[in-house]
Prior knowledge:
Elements: E1 14-20, H1 26-39, E2 44-49, E3 59-61, E4 67-69, E5 71-73, H2 76-82, E6 88-91, H3 101-110, E7 114-120, H4 132-138, E8 141-145, E9 147-148, E10 155-156, E11 158-161, E12 177-180, H5 182-190
Parallel strand pairs: 1-7, 1-8, 2-5, 2-6, 6-7
Antiparallel strand pairs: 3-4, 9-10, 11-12
Helix pairs in contact: 2-3
The structure holds zinc ion.
Zinc ion binds near residues 180, 181 and 184.
Amino acid sequence: MFIEFNSQNRKAGWVEVICGSMFSGKTEELIRRLRRAIIANQKVEIFKPDLDKRYSDTEVVSHNQNAIPSTPVTSSQQILLLTTEVDVVGIDEAQFFDSGITEVVLELANRGIRVVVAGLDMDYTGTPFGPMPDLLAAAEFITKVHAICQQCGSLANYSHRITNQSSQVLVGEKDSYEPRCRSCFYEGESR
Ligand code: ZN
């Protein structure tokens, strides 16, 4: 379990990345951390890419319906424009942002803000997803969470797509993806 880092330097910001496959509890963990910051009386802003309209337009919602208010944005630059006087910035579904997101996250952290980013580390082909590799490289703290393989019950690291669509951006629902472990994922690929 991630325990909040307590810097002695009041002006110090940092970056935390929560990554993993579909259904691994990334958003749950993001919400948990942001709730604790709110309990600590910190000012928190949460952003998500505009395309994620699965459950709600203005909330970050996890698969088990845990929700927290958020602002949908169409580009990473908008986050900078909308962030004033905050202690903590949360970003969900970071894999869908443009490549400018890493620079935005660094800028926020350099201003002394704690930035908590959640995103899919790999797409359905097992390829690193969008800006996630850069965000992981830049982060002080990384938490990789895991789902359970739907084929064998092992720890799942991959998101297997169970539809025939081939676009990288297919916003996830239970009927489009299933989490799989390494061996079940690559077995499925060859079939
Ligand atoms: Zn498996």
